[in-house]
Design a protein that fits this description.
- The structure is a homodimer of 578-residue chains.
- Chain A is globular.
- In chain A, helix 3 packs antiparallel against helix 6 and helix 22 packs across helix 23.
- By secondary structure, chain A is α+β, with helices and mostly antiparallel strands.
- In chain A, strands 15-12-14-13-17-18-16 form a seven-stranded antiparallel sheet, with helices on both faces.
Chain lengths: 578, 578
């Protein structure tokens, strides 16, 4: 990734591999050898907005390069440890603090701040690395019978404190040994996997399915969250995640065909037919249960043909946010099919992207201004298509027609290509920025079209109430009835308490504005105080009834997850829907 | 509908309006003034296959023209009747046997046989006709508090004994007064209705939405079950129904955006955003609950633009079932979009249709034979498209290409037009045939592509084990991963017990073959013994936990519905998935 030196002063960006067993090696995003430093344009912008100078970028802080050398005692009784070891085998467990810390924290900014400050808490007593479904079933049964808290770690990219072991006990690290493809079904166009398989490993096998499995086609699973490289299939499913291409492929709940769970009361194996009328959907009861009902073991996903050559790229600039929003809504309601990537940046994000991609100050920028596309007003739409060639062409043709109608100026596919380059690598920049005290964090929500502007305005207003803060947002993951609204805030901040208050404030505003508090990040323990306020107390009771049925001893992901065992005083009710 | 006299002997088909208050007026399908007599071709075919003669069609039997004059006593205490009357008002209740019988029976063959034989059982004590949501909420609360069984009647076309009042008590007839459109949302493309609104009333308003509501477009809800004319929106939702155009529009669970229920523990109002990640889906918990958790009051459906001119019709003849099945599967997996109607008849149904549509014996038929499309081997595919024009064209282009590849010969759109004519009127024929002792009944199931032929063969084999029986089937409601398999059997039969044994046998075979026992008819009380065997005992426990939460007194649609309160000995386990 980017290593070009700046023309001006260049901060001493940390570009080395984090030391083995260090705090940084845990919180650092992604590939241990990769990093991404902001381009000089962005660095300049950041200094300008935050009123910082090169001086502020001379000293790095709280890098967490030190080894995790504290010893957190194991509280679990030896007889339990012996019993669990007997299930997974001598090779497949760990008791050292580093391995335990590794599976407890995810990728929330709160996790990063704690690790930079060497705050170690909520560790499991033991980490197990099961190799098959039967081992997981035995572990679940054992933990329930002996009332031992049980957590699951997949790819480690949770931004909801989803895997954090509030009650200690056992954590299953599924990534290590529980990551095989069980079956590629060429007739049904499905793949069945062990839930710990990571996105890229699965995608690589599918893209080469003809060779790997002798299938008729090469396939894709169509699910590419920004965390793609560091997320597991199981994590996608139990949190109800979404990939960036979901406007065409659907969210993970649209991609899942059927699932198998190990729960304390036994196994749940859902209906494998694409649709049925046999009562409430067990698939939809289990998806989104975030490890509180049981452990997802096997999952079958729908497959799509791998046709990257059908990516027809496009980008359009609109004069204002209202026109742009109307255009994308009309596209989504046009019934001509859907683009795959379809991403509309608001005024502030557009401004930022123009600078990041080096368009500001160029002849193109000048031309835009002449034609009435003004700074801090204009909005950028980008995307590409997926599917059969004729389908893709028809989508593009209609998108172009509608965009033109609403004053969209085509910038060709080049802007989309620029965006694609940063698609999975942008998160790397977060660590480098934070080394100098600048925090980049994200929040997202689900909205209907008729409520979108209210949510957008109210959240931005709150975020901007903090001085020197960039708040950029985009609409992505679109549907005919609404979309995901995604907020990224960037601000100099290094106090944990200050962060918590600010973060909580954003969530309050999201909920109060009428949006769903998550479209694809999930609830975990971080968002748990808000869920009852959103879904209502009666619906919450239904989830608790299910929890009590599947997990009568309360051992599955306990400690507030999804609000199921949250103390009354921690609940937040902002929309009166109790 | 058809009234042309035959060239040969013409049976004395019953074509009059059923007498007021008669048994026939209850069981008769649809419009009181409409009927459909088989064409002479079909009449000849029926005689040929069933080895019947004109003699057998000289005397009609068990027409049920007599008035329902028995008095079934009202067992509900007067204080409860008074309290319920006070909720709905003096005009909005009924205690007479006829009104009570009307809401208790649906359209299963078992219902028809009972009414023809004047078997009256399982009536509610009182029928209420609520006018708004608040009344329904009060009734649910009152019934739960006083442990009075509560049933709901919508359109009356249940084929699962769904609304039958096994425990007597109260039945809400929602069709009469609870049938208004609450809101058409032109921004989100949604409509919110009271659940008792009937399909055609809603569709008519939507098709004229520009005029009726001042919207930008005229709309359609895209949901057209064969029972369209006599089914309510609420019925579609709580049973997880499907329309004939579902291959494009989706099943009702794909069309529903959000819902509101009155349950004994209070109201449930689901998330109105198109997708979210806030735990298990409450929508999918409530859809398919068939009145056992609560009463669906308001429901919001996604809308589509009304573009009937974009119906591009097609039909193809294939040489055999294997090629035809492969072709439609490849279409569904082609990622070029989906046709709206997409219906593949098997060998026997094709043979029947060729005769019904008068193709047998024509030059077209002769040409088919010359080209190798043989009787009892060839299979007919028909359909049309929906959506934006370019999308429709691209779908048709790809369907044509794939069909050609598998030996499909285009028969143009004429065959589809013939099918369309009978689309909603064919059910009328059932009563006229049964007047002469010939039973026409249907069963359907959900299958994956890789299991389809097994299911098809095993069910047909069982059905044919009864002599003189026609069994025709088709694949409709298709998906990339599988489809609905629909069976129609026609056989001379008038003994109820004989019918029950035969019907039960078909269900056993469906379940044993690995199919889901319903794709869109639902479970009700008729299919209830099989559900636990299909979804498994652990999943069944989850549904029972929900039931117990929402309806602790067990007053909502009690008497076996969905297997929730079914005695152990009535359960059927054929696939070992306990």
């Amino acid at each position: 990734m980017s290593t070009k030196p700046y023309k001006g002063f260049s901060p001493d960006w940390f570009t080395e591999r984090a030391p083995e067993k260090s705090y940084r090696s845990i919180y650092k995003w992604g590939d241990p050898n990769a990093y991404k430093i902001p381009r000089e344009r962005l660095y300049t912008l950041v200094k300008e907005i935050f009123e910082m100078t090169d001086e502020d970028f001379k000293e790095r802080r709280e890098l967490g390069l030190e080894e995790v050398d504290i010893e957190v005692p194991v509280a679990l009784a030896q007889k339990h440890i012996d019993a669990l070891k007997a299930i997974v085998g001598e090779e497949n467990y760990a008791l050292d603090t580093y391995s335990r810390l590794q599976v407890a924290y995810g990728q929330t900014m709160y996790d990063l701040m704690r690790l930079r400050k060497k705050i170690v808490e909520n560790l499991p007593d033991i980490v197990l690395y099961p190799t098959d479904k039967e081992q997981i079933e035995k572990i679940v049964e054992y933990c329930s019978n002996n009332e031992i808290p049980l957590y699951v770690y997949g790819g480690g990219s949770s931004v909801t404190r989803g895997a954090e072991c509030f009650k200690n006990g056992v954590s299953l690290n599924l990534q290590k040994n529980f990551n095989k493809v069980i079956e590629v079904n060429d007739v049904n166009h499905t793949v069945t996997v062990q839930s710990g398989i990571m996105g890229p490993a699965l995608e690589k096998l599918l893209n080469n399915a003809k060779e790997e499995y002798g299938t008729r086609y090469n396939y894709t699973c169509g699910h590419f969250p920004q965390s793609f490289e560091y997320s597991s299939v199981g994590g996608w499913v139990v949190t109800r995640g979404a990939g960036q291409n979901s406007t065409y492929y659907g969210k993970i709940e649209d991609i899942v065909l059927c699932q198998e769970y190990a729960t304390p009361i036994g196994n749940i194996s859902t209906d494998r037919t694409p649709r049925s009328a046999c009562g409430p959907s067990m698939d939809h009861i289990m998806m989104g249960s975030e490890g509180t009902f049981g452990v997802l073991t096997h999952v079958t996903l729908r497959l799509f043909k791998y046709n990257p050559k059908n990516h027809l790229k496009f980008s359009f600039m609109f004069k204002n946010w209202d026109d742009a929003r109307t255009a994308v809504r009309e596209c989504m309601q046009g019934e001509f099919g859907f683009p795959s990537i379809f991403r509309l940046s608001d005024q502030e994000e557009t401004q930022m992207m123009m600078r990041m991609y080096g368009i500001s100050g160029t002849p193109l920028d000048a031309m835009l201004k002449v034609r009435g596309y003004k700074d801090y007003e204009k909005c950028l739409l980008l995307g590409f298509t997926d599917g059969e060639r004729g389908y893709c062409k028809n989508v593009l043709k209609n998108v172009k027609k509608i965009c033109k109608k609403y004053g969209g100026m085509s910038l060709t596919g080049i802007v989309t290509t620029s965006w694609e380059h940063g698609r999975f690598s942008d998160p790397y920049m977060r660590d480098n920025m934070q080394d100098f005290g600048v925090v980049i964090d994200t929040l997202e929500c689900a909205v209907n079209w008729d409520n979108m502007e209210k949510v957008h305005q109210e959240v931005r207003e709150y975020c901007h109430s903090r001085p020197k803060t960039i708040v950029i947002s985009h609409i992505s993951h679109m549907y005919p009835q609404g979309a995901n609204l995604y907020f990224i805030f960037i601000t100099p901040m290094d106090d944990i308490e200050e962060f918590k208050v600010y973060h909580r404030g954003i969530l309050d505003v999201i909920q109060h504005s009428g949006a769903a508090i998550s479209h694809h990040h999930g609830i975990g323990k971080l968002f748990a105080p808000w869920i009852e306020g959103y879904i209502g107390t009666n619906a919450m009771g239904a989830l608790k009834a299910l929890k009590n049925y599947f997990d009568p001893k309360g051992v599955m992901n306990p400690g507030g997850t999804m609000g199921l065992d949250l103390p009354e005083e921690e609940k937040v009710f902002t929309n009166g829907k109790k």
